[in-house]
Amino acid sequence: MFNTVQSFSPAFRRFALSRVLVWSGAATSLVALPVLVYDLTGSATATAALAALEAAPYLAFGLVAGAWGDRFTRAWTLTGAGLASAALLASVPIAAQVSTLHVAHVLAVATAVGILGVFADAAAFGSITTLVDRGELAGAQGLLTTVGTLVGVAGPAVGGALLARVGAVHVLWVEVAAYVAGAALLTGLRLGGGVRPAGASLLGSISEGLRFVLREPLVRRLTLCGIGVSLASGGVVGLQVALAVDELGVPLDGHELGLLLAAGACGSAAAGLLAPTVRRRWRAGLVASVGYLAGFAAVCALALSPGWLAAAALLAAWHLVATTVIVNGIVARQTLAPDELQSRVNATARMIAWGGQPLGALLAAALVTVVDVRTTILLLSTALLASALAAWASGLHRLAVSPAS
């Protein structure tokens, strides 16, 4: 992997390190925030609501963020979003220190950081094509996924260890530091953006990106079928802590919880390593179509897992499949979209496809009040089956990025 990293330009390596720092902080708080909410409320519904609030901003702001990422300097957007997120997250342990912390404060911070993350993601997606050649996109995106999730493997485990030692609220200082360091690394980088054609309104810019997503056959089908992945993902993310604690007997303050969540990051890391090979050997449409079926099987098995070790293995399998499908779609969009549409196309497609994640989390929050956690996850897994059926019926499995793919 070191040789692969060295093959990219110093600017890309710096950009990648900045993104990895932000992701590593987020991976650490992956344990802290839901545990903090669960500790404050004792409610599985509240933890599912947290997942919904963290994901909902893409649905609300994805189109605007995409246009922003092309019209404004991307380095400035990434730096500003990182520093603002650090300040918001720091307010949680500060409030706890003066005994004024309430669950509403935590949920509001999670929502605000999620909104900033939408703008940062849009800018980051657009930045990659300014730092590497089109032929290197699969390798660059795979490297980002792999390195980020390898750090993410350690993040939940470290978060679990810190959780037992300092408490959930103080684990957030790790994420604060990561955001600040990530923003500092972007100083001086030229990441594109700032393209505002004469007479083009913000609404016109948004429409241009949306038209590309809906007009290009492969991008359109990958985006629409991807809604099932996000619905199931919202349910799994929203209920994984409750599944571990309520159904599998994992202690809320034990290291097993961090290891369980770290297993999912292992699956994502493996998907990143495999991304260039998958891109070379199989059509993008086929990868997605098979992935939906494999994801359905993994989530069903997760819901029925007998113990936390089995659940960890199945979380790894689910994240392997889901991340492969996600990276597959990102590379297809980055390859097909022109430079001036990169942020808009990627943010628009992500907004549509991942708009299902907050809905999945909200459905989980509602269903878990009627049926148990396992049954709720089983019900949400049917969204993946629906995606698989739609993919095969629409002929998605026959589509490639280009005839030579």
From TrEMBL:
<feature type="transmembrane region" description="Helical">
    <location>
        <begin position="222"/>
        <end position="245"/>
    </location>
</feature>
<dbReference type="InterPro" id="IPR036259">
    <property type="entry name" value="MFS_trans_sf"/>
</dbReference>
<feature type="transmembrane region" description="Helical">
    <location>
        <begin position="377"/>
        <end position="396"/>
    </location>
</feature>
<feature type="transmembrane region" description="Helical">
    <location>
        <begin position="143"/>
        <end position="164"/>
    </location>
</feature>
<feature type="transmembrane region" description="Helical">
    <location>
        <begin position="257"/>
        <end position="275"/>
    </location>
</feature>
<feature type="transmembrane region" description="Helical">
    <location>
        <begin position="352"/>
        <end position="371"/>
    </location>
</feature>
<feature type="transmembrane region" description="Helical">
    <location>
        <begin position="170"/>
        <end position="189"/>
    </location>
</feature>
<dbReference type="Pfam" id="PF07690">
    <property type="entry name" value="MFS_1"/>
</dbReference>
<keyword id="KW-1133">Transmembrane helix</keyword>
<feature type="transmembrane region" description="Helical">
    <location>
        <begin position="20"/>
        <end position="38"/>
    </location>
</feature>
<feature type="transmembrane region" description="Helical">
    <location>
        <begin position="44"/>
        <end position="68"/>
    </location>
</feature>
<feature type="transmembrane region" description="Helical">
    <location>
        <begin position="75"/>
        <end position="96"/>
    </location>
</feature>
<feature type="transmembrane region" description="Helical">
    <location>
        <begin position="102"/>
        <end position="131"/>
    </location>
</feature>
<keyword id="KW-0472">Membrane</keyword>
<protein>
    <submittedName>
        <fullName>MFS transporter</fullName>
    </submittedName>
</protein>
<keyword id="KW-0812">Transmembrane</keyword>
<feature type="transmembrane region" description="Helical">
    <location>
        <begin position="310"/>
        <end position="331"/>
    </location>
</feature>
<feature type="transmembrane region" description="Helical">
    <location>
        <begin position="282"/>
        <end position="304"/>
    </location>
</feature>
<dbReference type="InterPro" id="IPR011701">
    <property type="entry name" value="MFS"/>
</dbReference>
<keyword id="KW-1003">Cell membrane</keyword>
